[in-house]
Amino acid sequence: MLRFQRFASTYSQRQVLRRYPVGATIHGYEVQRVMPVPEFKLSAVHLVHSQTGSEHLHIDREDSNNVFSIGFKTNPPDCTGVPHILEHTTLCGSYKYPVRDPFFKMLNRSLANFMNAMTGPDYTFYPFSTTNKADFENLMSVYLDATLNPLLKPEDFYQEGWRLEHSQVEDPESDIVFKGVVYNEMKGQVSNANYYFWIKFQDSIYPSLNNSGGDPKKITDLQYHELVDFHQRNYHPSNSKTFTYGNIPLDSTLKRLNEQFIGYGKRKSSKRPLLPIELGKDVEANFHGQVDPMLPPDRQLKTSMTWICGSPRDTYETFLLKVLGSLLMDGHSSVVYQRLIESGIGLDFSVNSGVESNTSVNFLTIGVQGASDVSKFRRTVDEIFTDVLKKPFDRQKVEAILQQLELGKKDHKSNFGLQLLYSLLPGWTNEVDPFEGLQFDETLQRLREDYETKGDRLFYDLINKYVIDKPCFKYSMQGSEDFSKNLEEEEKKRLQAKLSHLDENDKEVIYRRGLLLQEKQNLKEDLTCLPSLKISDISRNGDSFPVDKLSPVITSRITDTNGITYIRAKRKLNDSIPAELYPYLTLFADSLTSLGTSTEDYSEIEDAMKLHTGGISTHIDVTTDPVTLRPHLYFKFDGWSLNSKTDHIFDIWKKLLVDTDFRKHSDKLKILVRSLASSNTSAVAESGHSFARGYAGAHYSATKAIGESLNGIEQLQLITRLSNTLDDEQAFQTNLVDKLIELKEHVIRSENLEFFVTTDSHPSAEQVQTQISKFVETLPRGATHGGLEAAQYPLLPMRAGISNTLIDFPFQVHYAASVLPGASYTHVDGAHLQVLASLLTFKHLHREVREKGGAYGGGATYSALDGLFSFYSYRDPHPLQSLETFSKSASYVLNNARWTKADLDEAKMTIFQQVDAPISRKSEGITNFYSNVTDAMRQARREQLLDTSLSDVQNVTEKYLLNKHPANAVVGPIIDGKTTEAGWQVEQL
Ligand SMILES: [Zn+2]
To answer: 184, 345, 416, 712: which has the fewest Cβ within 10 Å?
Structure first.
């Protein structure tokens, strides 16, 4: 709905309007509509390809970080995950680019800062972003051919989907097991309790969506011909939507698309929108899921209530619903948080909570995890809604939400085009008009006007329309000790059923097929068909962003911030923290933004924060010195607001840092600890490889050892221990409250503070400078010394030169890491090691760990600043085999790799994708402040990377990897007879 006439406000927007007259035809595309969106300095152009009916949305904007995406509506026919397996197999080679995994190969022939493919509930899309025009054209060509002309060979299906194969491919006597990349990926997902809760929720309320990712139980039903069929039916231009964003002229894109679509006719769309279950009356669904090892037995319940609230096609009502969702549930002062979380009914919101509008209907869901009593939860939710209708919403809160939206609009983001794609695409595939989603100012203005005239009625009407006395979907999942065991048994049975049908002949086929697949995986391919940028496309000089020194401790960066000021502060803590208090630093920083002062509850402070600022945060960080490799331990805090409102940032900083009252709000502290405990497990499930890598690194680096206690395995153990003893008031006071009060003495001091200010004018910067001086005076004086010097922080012990640790965790899959020490950021060896890591990942480990080993991911990384060389695997069915592969890597490099100059250049290309990825304005020039890396160091390193030769790579392999003793860590369940043997230690969480 267009309520206001839109006028082009800038010269470039008027040009866009003129360039795309409505009704004109450009390369087979008819211009349907053009709309300027001055608030985002962009113009949107909507076109339709006449021959096929394919729609194109172009967002014309002066931004060099261009985006392309092709997407298809893919209603899943069943739960075999066919859309997801197709997403993977389209990337296994196409007619024009007949090489295995051209996407992956393009990663090191391109300077794209983002390349991916994603399966949504009823759509699949393939986006990338790059600042280089030649690159844009190369990648568009690969993407179009991959999606429209994939080879879809049977072996791609076996590799990416599922297959039966001997556990040891070459040994026909070894067991036959299920393998396949998507199969293992989804097994990994199922063991993530949050994912399982969410997918079972969706399966139950929205069965027609059929789990597009794939249910492992059903994946093994999928047949190869069904995959080919699914591609035929869905990956057709008539069923596609393409999207471009940025400053590359649309003309060349349309020309290319038209060439690609030329052989296709127009298909009638047979895609019904998929709908959820009919909610004629309340419906209830109950399941069992993974037990959370870090929560007590009486807190293993997740439960939610959901109402269906209209359709996203009504964009204004959907927007109102989201505002209502924020009013009800966002932050400590929201009524739902107070009555469900603060009251202890649940430990935290469940993952399906909030307003969801990514499908054909809107859901409003209120749910909690770590609950004990379902009926109490449901009664309370009902009461909340009846009470809400009796009590007016706080005007300030409505205003705060609008302020947040306005500020979010002004805040410059380096990946704005991608964000726009993500926000528009789900609706667009379900017939929501993307132009409506772009009319930000109108929507906001309309809300303001409606709120003026109707007041709270605006929200009450929604609640009455969709919630009060309306049918509700009641959903619960109870943690069960048997869950993993049952999954394993189900898999065993399913495998047996398949095996029982096999005769000797079939078994021979399976054996030969395994060997054949392995042979193909080992084949050295000719990649010359793939387009590529050249190493000379990388400039020898990197970006630098001049900064000003306003005073010895205040640095500023003046840039186009759209009227926003960002302020960051840090205080070095290297010699002030007593050894026994290190592990409590994270909780200390977290409690500052959770507890409140002696006169104010945190919810009041939070309200002011939302009303006047874009956000304020406090954290503890430990970084490594780029020259000496010694750790720097910092307390950091930051905030941002409109230039005119920076005084609020300092007011709130003062309240949080100086006035937080740990004793008075110790009940809030308990809530915080419980909520952290309730999210620990999913943190490990999502990034088990980071935990494994951090733990292994802590054997070699003081920074990583401190990191272990701040946010690694040791921190998880601490939170579990604390959350289990919260009922003992005396112990709680001494074990936690007293410690945080003591920490405050050491951390919050006026000495050694440094600031970095990003704003858009010198007067603004000077105003902040004055505010900083006043603020510093309000802090206590006299720095404390005599704590444990950070550099002396004890490393995790190595036993007899070998360390293998299994961190016992009830997943279906593992995460493995192997870590060795390297060189400092400024040492030339560091650059060589980084190139080596890239070469190993792309030219060796991807094949060994992912393609052959069946892990979802794996490779080597070099942490430049920490000076650590790490191998890792992600959702790995064979972690010990991966560790073996890692340990043989050095001899592979020296004896078998035979890498060429082209391989080397590709490795560098991959590194520079990240080095040269566009950054947001607020991040300009801040590297030195955050990591002590100067522009000169960055430039030197850039040259070292570009100048790295193959013999440099060999030399560092010999010097740092060959015959060295890595620290190994595996996160996941105990592997019988292996990880309990000598040479292994087991850590429990
Ligand atoms: Zn996947």
So the answer is: 345
